[in-house]
Amino acid sequence: MATGYEERAGRKREMDLTSCSREGEGREVHWLPCGIDYDGEAKGMEEHFRSSVVTTKEGTKEAYLRGRHLKGTELPLPQGYSAVVLEKRHEGGDFQEGSKSSWEAVGGSPCITYWNHTTNPSETDAQRRALEFLDMNEALNGE
């Protein structure tokens, strides 16, 4: 089982990545240009987001999320990397000494769709440049 374990400030964290290696467990991963003041299950995203995604003839995607216009594109991750969708399984009190957080991978994807506010995706977008760091790091460290 692929797991990770960390203890910090008296709190234990575990991560189970077992399902990442299973076939057919794919999920779509979206990188949105926003902050969300909500810490619960995202119900009804299909109603508010996916149903309105349109691919243009230039290959970009357009969507409206809660009335805001977004433009995006699918971006493959570098060789050997994948995006992981984690689900939190919390045990014990929130942020209390001795509490334990467990995370389980519920899916993954070899690419992400990133979104900009009203501007077309380009080679100079921060999201693309952040992922280029992974390739550059591998080249520098020879891994």
Automatic annotation (TrEMBL):
GO CC annotations, alphabetized: ribonuclease H2 complex
GO biological process, alphabetically ordered: RNA catabolic process
Pfam family, one: RNase_H2_suC
InterPro entries: RNase_H2_suC
Disordered: annotated segments: 1-22
Protein name: Uncharacterized protein
Lineage: Eukaryota, Viridiplantae, Chlorophyta, Chloropicophyceae, Chloropicales
